[in-house]
Design a protein that fits this description.
heterodimer, A: 8 helices, about 35% helix, B: alpha/beta, seven-stranded mixed beta sheet, two-stranded antiparallel ribbon, about 20% strand
């Protein structure tokens, strides 16, 4: 029927990027299951999936009553030893009966939430996306957030961050539609929350989560770089040193930008569309250029000061 | 060892490479005794084996394959009480079994369901518990299960003495999947006890008998893996030839007593037990229906069955049968 999800992205609370063996250790959330690590094209690690049971109301755009019973899966990811993501999702399927089944029925289909309702996929997707601070309806953000706080609290981390960065939330819903290719509608709600409505082919439903996680990573990078520039401007206005924060941004963040690298080719048209409008890489390149300009100017100023200093001798 | 050796390099799936275990058609558990019953009372052992022998024969007949693979097994309770002599008990069990027409192919240790081959099996299974959500659970709070307990419904709300004085009415517990009326079950899975060791307070976890026995069932059904590798692989022991250690914990978790036995794990299992173990087995079924077992392992067993023309249910509880016999 459809898939709902929420990805939360933040900076790992550690001074330096973590090496892969340590990343694998802190993402080992389930004993006996491997953490999947890839080094190319960028260091990326994914925890095994955890499962949580739910039985609650589901929001619908038409206000038709809906109840969801089943399990949601969640996983944590670390990119470049630095960016931490918590991602929770549930595949919604229409229930065959009007009441709750024995629990073993739901345990047998991990990650599936059965929906008791007359509402269709579009009503459920729109209802979910409009409900960004759920009270009694399905709360995938909290599931992701719990995973993030468990990992941030790990004893192996020193709990010091090198860049000031705000966490971002990407809420998404993917459903099957009769379009020619996949379609994504992205909406921003303030600085923090993004909503993505995906309409894909039946066979692409399972790929939606990876696309949204990749989108969330790059959206967070853009947001963070904008914050770095803002912070630099503020410090400069106060006559304070900015070279440390600028070099940290260059060293830690620049190379992480690789839109679409983690996305299945079937969904790559979505990234191509995002590159057209709003032009993700264009924005990124502009910000990268601004940071490089800041560094170049500061270097020039430093050289000039040294020259004057030696002339005074 | 380099970093790349400890981690997988695969984006294709989120699954470990799962190694299969040899599978019989049926695993028959032939009776059970508490450890304290084993050393002295030979007549009691004989009576139980005699009573269950016809049921074991009947169970074998449920396998319709041309070349049936059936193995028998017995679980020794060495977790709570282990100050007995393994050599004496293993010999006695096998000899009385043979005498009553109940050959025992495998003997396993309950403590081996806690830790086997250095793998903390109990912890591994505890991490896969999937508590049943109360209506209204939307994911915003962590699961509310009381640590160490698992139930099939919603507990009675707590009423302190003070509140009770203000005439707050008692509310009954409720089974979630009930049919008209509830059969509410609340099971203790483990208990943490604080002990003073060398001047320091250390928390010691004791796993409950039903929890360890659930692991015993999972091993018999070939459902447990550690990073994709099977755990507690049976090791052959030949009585009268091999040196049997003095203590139980020096023995393997699963011992193969009959060198020609069919594989230990099986598509289906039947446990033939005295009826006094019914509450424990009921608890086991509840535990087993609250576990998120690794999907690749489930898929592998179902596929293996299909390749032999057998339809194997995905749910482990649908692969387990019981026969409760009279007496204790």
């Amino acid at each position: 029927m459809l898939v709902l999800g929420e990805v939360r992205t933040c900076l790992l609370h550690n001074t330096a990027p973590l090496p892969t063996p340590l990343v694998a250790q802190i993402l080992g959330t389930l004993p006996g299951r491997r953490v999947l690590c890839a080094e190319r094209p960028i260091a990326h690690a994914m925890s095994p999936e955890l499962v949580t049971g739910i039985d609650c109301k589901l929001a619908t755009s038409s206000r038709v009553r809906a109840r969801g019973i089943g399990t949601v899966t969640s996983r944590a990811m670390i990119t470049s030893g630095l960016v931490l993501q918590g991602s929770a999702s549930a595949y919604l399927r229409r229930a065959t009966g009007p009441s709750r089944q024995a629990w073993s029925h739901y345990v047998d289909q991990l990650g599936v939430v059965e929906v008791i309702s007359r509402a269709d996929a579009a009503e459920l997707a729109e209802g979910y996306l409009a409900d960004s601070t759920p009270v009694s309806t399905i709360d995938l953000g909290s599931v992701s957030e719990r995973l993030i706080s468990d990992i941030q609290g790990h004893v192996q981390l020193d709990h010091v961050t090198s860049v000031r960065a705000r966490p971002t939330w990407v809420r998404w819903a993917a459903r099957v539609g009769d379009h020619d290719g996949p379609v994504a509608r992205v909406r921003s709600e303030g600085d923090v929350v993004r909503a993505i409505e995906l309409i894909v082919d039946e066979s692409q439903l399972g790929l939606a989560a990876r696309f949204c996680e990749d989108f969330a990573l790059h959206d967070w990078l853009l947001t963070t770089l904008a914050q770095v520039i803002e912070q630099t401007n503020r410090l400069k206005a106060l006559g304070q040193q900015t070279i440390d924060i600028l070099t940290t941004a260059v060293e830690r963040l620049f190379h992480v930008w690789m839109p679409g690298a983690q996305v299945d080719p079937a969904l790559s048209p979505l990234w191509d569309a995002l590159e057209q409008r709003p032009g993700f890489s264009r924005q990124w390149n502009t910000q990268v250029a601004r940071i490089r300009d800041h560094i170049a100017l500061q270097t020039l100023q430093a050289v000039e000061q040294t020259r004057r200093g030696s002339a005074d001798w | 060892m380099t970093a790349l050796e400890v981690v997988a390099y695969s984006e294709a799936s989120n699954q470990d490479n799962v190694r299969g275990v040899p599978l019989s058609h049926l695993s028959i558990e032939v009776g059970h005794f508490y450890m304290e019953d084993l050393p002295s009372n030979e007549e009691r052992i004989r009576r139980q084996f005699q009573r269950l022998a016809p049921w074991a024969t009947a169970a074998k007949k449920t396998v319709t394959a041309d070349r049936p693979r059936v193995s028998t097994c017995f679980l020794v309770d060495d977790y709570f009480y282990n100050s007995t002599n393994p050599n004496e008990i293993l010999r006695k069990l096998v000899a009385i079994g043979d005498e009553c027409g109940v050959s025992i192919d495998y003997i396993a240790r309950e403590a081996g369901c806690c830790v086997a081959d250095g793998v903390p099996l109990a912890e591994l299974v505890a991490a896969r518990l999937l508590a049943e959500p109360a209506p209204g659970t939307n994911g915003s709070r962590p699961p509310t299960d009381q640590s160490g307990w698992l139930c099939n419904g919603e507990r009675s709300p707590e009423t302190s003495t003070d509140q009770a004085m203000h005439s707050r009415l008692w509310e009954p517990p409720q089974e979630f999947g009930k049919r008209n009326h509830s059969i509410f079950l609340d099971i203790e899975l483990w208990k943490d006890v604080e002990e003073r060791v060398g001047g320091e307070t250390v928390s010691q976890r004791t796993w409950s008998c039903p929890f360890l026995a659930s692991i015993w069932h999972l091993l018999r059904l070939g459902m447990l893996r550690h990073f994709g590798e099977p755990i507690a692989h049976p090791q052959q022991i030949t009585l009268g030839i091999d040196d049997i250690p003095e203590t139980w914990n020096e023995l393997p978790a699963v011992m193969q007593m009959n060198p020609r036995a069919a594989p230990f794990s099986a598509y289906r299992s039947v446990s033939i037990l005295p009826q006094r173990y019914l509450p424990i087995e009921n608890a086991i079924k509840l535990i087993l229906s609250h576990l998120s077992l690794d999907e690749p392992v489930i898929g592998q067993v179902v596929e293996r069955g299909a390749s032999e023309g057998l339809e194997i249910p995905r749910k482990v509880i649908d692969r387990i049968s019981h026969v409760f016999i009279e007496g204790s």
